[in-house]
C-alpha cells in the first residue's frame, strides 16, 4: 500500500534565511522531504509519523523577524524525484566544482559531484555546504584521513575522495541520510568512504587529518571535545552550520583545546571556520 503523507505549504517572508532554518527545524521534527519554491517551501511527513501538535515546537514560526503562514493537507505517495526535477537547480563553486542531479547537464568542471536530490539538506544550495566545499578546495587532501560528521547526502565526503583523501568516514544520525550517502557514494564511484548511522559516540580511538562538521551550533558545542581528541596534530577542523552571531561562543570552545583559527568564510550571515591543530 502506498504511504499517506501530510503536506505543509509554508509561505515565508523574507524567504532567506528563514526557509533554511525552517527546513532544518522541520527535519528534526520528522519531516522527510522538502521542495522549495518562490514563496517558501512545501514539506512532507508520513501520516504514521505525524501528530496534531508536531509544529508547535518549531521555533522560527514564533519569530517576530519573519512572517510565516501555512496550510496542510493529506496526500498520497509523492514521486520525490519528479518534484525535485521541477525545482532543483545545479550549482557551481568557484568555477571548479559542480553539484548537480543526474538529469542535469555535465558542465565539465574539474570536479563533478552527482547527487540524487531527494531532500534539501546537503545538496550544496545551502550556504554552509557551499562554504565547506570552498574550505576543502583550499586544502591538500591527498592521502589524508577525513571524517564527515553529519554527512547528510554524503556530498562533502564524496568531494574529499575526489581530492585524493583516504580513508574517509561519514556519520549521520538520520537513517535516511545514511542510506542516501551510500547511494550517492556509489553513484560517484567512491571507493574509500565508509558511512555509519549514529552520532559522535561512535568515535573512540579513530584519528583523522581533517574533520568536517557541518551541524547546528548546539551539537558542535556538545561534541567539540570529541572532535578535537580525534584530530591528528597538524590537522584541520572545518566547522559550519551556524550564524555570524555564534562565532564567539564556538571560538571560545574550540581554543580551549589548543586549536588556532585560520580562516573564516561568510555567506548570507552563515559562517564557516577553519581551525588548525599544531
Strand content: 25-35%
Question: How far apart are the termini?
Answer: 57 Å
**Main sheet makeup:** 7 strands, mixed
Strand order of the largest sheet: 10-9-8-11-12-14-13
The fold-level CATH name of the largest domain is Rossmann fold
General shape: globular
Helix/strand/pairing class, anyone?
alpha/beta
Radius of gyration: 19 Å
Taking pLDDT < 50 over at least 5 consecutive residues as the criterion, the unreliable ranges are none
Helix percentage: 25-40%
Order of helices and strands: EHEEEHEEEHEHEHEEHEHEE
CATH class of the largest domain: Alpha Beta
Any guess at the CATH architecture of the largest domain? 3-Layer(aba) Sandwich
- Corresponding CATH superfamily of the largest domain: Vaccinia Virus protein VP39
Q: Quickly count the helices.
A: 7
**Domain unit count:** 2
Number of strands: 14
Mean pLDDT comes to 89
